[in-house]
Structures are given as structure tokens and as C-alpha cells.
Specification:
The chain is mainly alpha-helical. The chain folds into two domains: about 1-25 and about 115-155; about 30-85. It has helices at about 5-25, 30-65, 70-75, 115-155.
Length: about 160
């Protein structure tokens, strides 16, 4: 096999491997698209949760504006008491704190796609390996052809 044929086959192999690896594992590939879909689902769920929390807080705010008993309960939870009121602390009893974790619903997306440099390196390495394998097989084929000629020459001479 001529050198130019081996080079063309190696370049073709490199191109095909690069195209397939890019399609599946590249920055715009199939794996990255699936991760983005999962991230989108997570954002939609987080958005629904934020809407529920917002509705709940809105209701609590309306109650605080109009209900004097709710205002008194909220003031007690903040440590404000009437003059004739006191506080008992019971050991082992934990007061229920009403709070919302800030920033836990939405997180920045961090893509995990392999870089194009890694994909290029893998495709180029495979192309070089194919070139060397073709070179080795071409030498073996030439050796076989030379031996066959020598055998036929020796047999007929």
C-alpha cells in the first residue's frame, strides 16, 4: 500500500473519530444536551418551589398586616413580650424556626462536556495508530510477496 493511501486512510479515520466524539461528547454534543435538559428540569422545579414560597410569604404578610393576634405571635417569636408575660425554656424542646434557605434553589450551571482539545487529541492519536498499523501490515504484505516470488523463482529454476 502506498504512503499516500495510508495517509489518506489515517486522515479519514481521524476525521470520522473526531466527528463521532464531538457528536456524543463535545460541548454541543448529545451528552451535554442531556445534562442541559436535566438542569432545565431542576430550574423549573426550583421555580415552582419559589412560587409556592412566595405565595406562602405573601399570605403571611397579609396576615401580619391585618391580624393583631398574628402580629403578637410574631413579636413573641422575635423576643418582644408584654409587660406581664414571661418565657419558660424547657430542656430538650426545640422551638420551630421558620426560615428559608437562601440561594439553595438556583445554582449556576457548570457544564461537564469534554473539551475539544481532548477530543482532537484522541482522534489524532487514533489516526496515528491507524497509520502505523497500516505501515506494519504493508511491510508484512511486501515480505509475503517477496517470499512468494523467491519461492516461485526457486521452484521453476
Amino acid at each position: 500500500m502506498k504512503l499516500i493511501h495510508r495517509l489518506l486512510i489515517s486522515l479519514y479515520t481521524t476525521f470520522v473519530v473526531f466527528a463521532w466524539l464531538s457528536f456524543f461528547f463535545g460541548p454541543d454534543g448529545l451528552a451535554e444536551s442531556r445534562q442541559l435538559e436535566k438542569y432545565k428540569e431542576k430550574l423549573v422545579k426550583g421555580n415552582l418551589m419559589m412560587e409556592r414560597i412566595n405565595l406562602k410569604l405573601d399570605n403571611e404578610f397579609k396576615n401580619l398586616e391585618s391580624d393583631p393576634e398574628k402580629i403578637a405571635l410574631e413579636a413573641r417569636s422575635l423576643g418582644y413580650y408584654h409587660e406581664n408575660e414571661g418565657i419558660f425554656l424547657l430542656e430538650g424542646y426545640r422551638m420551630d424556626l421558620k426560615g428559608y434557605s437562601v440561594g439553595s434553589l438556583f445554582r449556576a450551571y457548570s457544564g461537564r462536556a469534554s473539551s475539544l482539545a481532548t477530543i482532537r487529541l484522541a482522534a489524532l492519536s487514533l489516526g496515528i495508530i491507524v497509520f502505523f498499523l497500516l505501515t506494519i501490515f504493508a511491510r508484512n504484505e511486501n515480505d509475503y510477496t517477496i517470499r512468494r516470488r523467491r519461492y516461485s523463482e526457486a521452484r521453476y529454476n
